[in-house]
Amino acid sequence: MNAEAPWDAFDPLAYVNHNYADVIPEDEAIISIVRAHFADHFRAGPVRPVRGIDVGAGANLYPAFAMLPWCDEITLLDRAEPNVRYLHGQRLSYDSGWDAFWNLLCQDEAYAGLVGDPRERFAEVTQVEQADLFALSSRREHWSLGTMFFVAESLSTSHEEFRHAVECFLLSLVPGAPFAAAFMEHSQGYFVGETHFPACNVGELEIRSSIEAHAEGLRVFTVGQPDAVRPGYTSMIVACGFRARGN
After folding, report:
1. What three-state secondary structure class fits 201?
2. For residues 109 and 100, what is the distance between their CA atoms, to the nearest angstrom?
3. pLDDT tens digits for 37-91?
4. Where are the domains of the chain?
5. In 23-138, where does DSSP find H-type helix?
6. What is the model's pLDDT at position 31?
7. How far does CA 51 lie from the centroid of its chain?
8. Per-residue pLDDT tens over the stretch 136-169
9. Distance (Å, rounded) from C-alpha 65 to C-alpha 224?
């Protein structure tokens, strides 16, 4: 179960060094998908003040970057104390290694046209919150834009917890809110440094069905090849859509 995983042993620097020291093709593809989903949505109509959330932000800043042009505030939510410290440390002036990820987003004018320094904007609108994502069940319809990357399937081996995590994320969004979520398909668990963390073995059909209960306009993409980033998974799945109206 999620509560039994060694979250306070999570090493965000080891995670960043392994996964985000360079932009790999998988992240480039994911950024392209999410960039288009958000930018196309906000180009289509008037932009009102937007409250965003990145669930399980951990040591990955680019999901929050993807929301930056439209948000008055972005909550960076994570349970693990080391990740919370990392996010606080990055918030006021993130490391230069993240510039390459921002530059990819800037292939769309919605990002390239952001007024001022993105570091200043990031510091201005983000807030770090230490909390379990399951606590979002008490904050229904609170955020109007959301991301959740490699979280729901990386909490435990429990399919019930996986489905509940997806539900908590989606129900925390207002009806009609755009979202993007990413998953490791058929993950067998993963190491961060020397510490092993559990994963739930889910495929595209299980991922899709868990989202469809609370979403509309869903599009699902398969990204990358088996074991390209680490051993023990088959591909990455990216899901983009909108929080369903009327449920």
Report:
1. coil
2. 16
3. 999 999 987 677 799 999 999 999 999 999 999 999 999 999 999 999 999 999 9
4. 2-243
5. 25-43, 62-67, 81-91, 99-105, 109-112, 118-125
6. 98
7. 15
8. 999 999 999 999 999 999 999 999 999 999 999 9
9. 22
Element (H, E) at 206: helix 204-212
End-to-end CA distance of the chain: 28
d(CA 77, CA 192): 19
User: Measured between alpha carbons, how far is residue 128 from residues 2, 76, 125, 211 in Å?
Assistant: 21, 5, 10, 26
Contact 36, 108 (CB under 8 A): yes
Question: Is 189 strand, coil or helix?
Answer: coil
Phi/psi of residue 113, each to 5°? -85, 5
- How many residues can be counted in the chain? 247
Given the structure tokens 């023990």, which residue do they identify?
Answer: 232
pTM for this entry: 0.95
**pLDDT cut 70: percent of the chain above it:** 97
Angle subtended at Cα 187 by Cα 181 and Cα 193, rounded to the nearest 5 degrees: 95
| CB within 8 Å of 123: residues ≥ 6 apart | 91, 92, 93
Residue 197, helix vs strand vs coil:
strand
d(CA 140, CA 216): 17
| Helix 12-19 / helix 81-91 crossing angle, nearest 10 deg | 70
Q: 2-243, what's its fold?
A: Rossmann fold (3.40.50)
* Tokens read off for 41: 């949505």
Phi, psi of 13 (to 5 degrees): -70, -40
